[in-house]
């Protein structure tokens, strides 16, 4: 890759472009290999990884269980995306877009597939009648913030995060453009949270569950090591909201599920029973101490 760059008449794929995820990126869709997905004993089968998009769904499921919805019991299977597991035939049948999270609901006469984290949150909220206001202005506000997240986070992750943390060279123009947008988005949230305890109003909802794993983590300096660069401490209302959600037991549990990095006590590679949080899978798999 050289600068300045003049695009050719027809784009061609340079599979080794130096980006951190170049080995899994490609310009075509569809499966690369045959792979049947495992199915556990619960009606809800989640295929995911503890990235911010994955954590939305595991926090939601843990919140539903905490509210007493026993039907929200789930098996969470690990999809290691850096190894290309999202391109297996079974996964692509659940999500033709080959990205985590993806959910199968086996509770009805015919299985239902749901992909896109926002669609999964809405599906679960409607299925259990929880964490989404029933109608009127409150529901409209909740859905507005939910869809704000779905539209905004690609600028944060695919824009700012990519060019600040993952691109093979630092391009000032790209970092400037997306740092400005990331700070603008933080300010949008900060102004809303100055006037409202939660995004949709007084009640915690799927809007908070969608936004917290991205912007709560960003505000606490846990994304892209960009806390100082973006001066995240200045967004005091986002800080207050992020700290409050981080204290919720379901948020603490949800962020552990399908997590394979960080301190061992923060990881639960697969989740099949509530008791897995006490006897974590990797503990069972770990060789006995010498
Ligand atoms: N809009 C999607 C985005 C999902 C997404 O980007 N997932 C990433 C991990 S956070 C992924 O699976 N990437 C694998 C790939 O791009 O091959 C959602 O919210 O569900």
Describe this structure in words.
- This protein has 290 residues and is α+β, with helices and mostly antiparallel strands.
- The protein folds into 2 domains: 20-25 and 33-131 and 250-277, 3-Layer(aba) Sandwich (Glutaredoxin), CATH 3.40.30.10; 136-246, Up-down Bundle (Glutathione S-transferase Yfyf (Class Pi), Chain A, domain 2), CATH 1.20.1050.
- It has helices at residues 52-66, 89-94, 117-128, 136-166, 172-195, 206-219, 227-230, 236-246, 249-254, 281-285, and strands at residues 44-48, 74-78, 102-105, 112-115.
- The chain has a 4-stranded mixed β-sheet with strand order 2-1-3-4, with helices on one face.
- Helix 1 links the parallel strand 1 and strand 2.
- Helix 1 packs parallel to helix 3, helix 1 crosses helix 6 (206-219) and helix 6 (206-219) crosses helix 8 (236-246).
- The longest helix has 31 residues, at 136-166.
- Glutathione (GSH) is lined by residues 24, 51, 53, 81, 86, 98-101, 116-117.
Lay out the secondary structure:
Blueprint: E1 44-48, H1 52-66, E2 74-78, H2 89-94, E3 102-105, E4 112-115, H3 117-128, H4 136-166, H5 172-195, H6 206-219, H7 227-230, H8 236-246, H9 249-254, H10 281-285
Parallel strand pairs: 1-2
Antiparallel strand pairs: 1-3, 3-4
Helix pairs in contact: 1-3, 1-6, 4-5, 4-6, 5-8, 6-8
Bound molecules: glutathione.
Residues 24, 51, 53, 81, 86, 98-101, 116-117 line the site of glutathione.
- Domains, number: 2
Bound molecules: glutathione
- What fold name goes in the CATH topology slot of the largest domain? Glutaredoxin
What amount of the residues lies in strands?
Answer: 5-15%
Side-by-side strand order of the widest sheet: 2-1-3-4
Q: How can the largest sheet be summarized?
A: 4 strands, mixed
Point out poorly predicted stretches.
none
By CATH, the superfamily of the largest domain comes out as Glutaredoxin
Number of helices: 10
Gap from first CA to last CA? 49 Å
CATH class of the largest domain: Alpha Beta
Order of helices and strands: EHEHEEHHHHHHHH
Averaged pLDDT: 94
CATH architecture of the largest domain: 3-Layer(aba) Sandwich
Shape: globular
Number of strands: 4
Secondary structure: helix percent: 40-55%
How big is the Rg? 20 Å
| Helix-strand category | alpha+beta
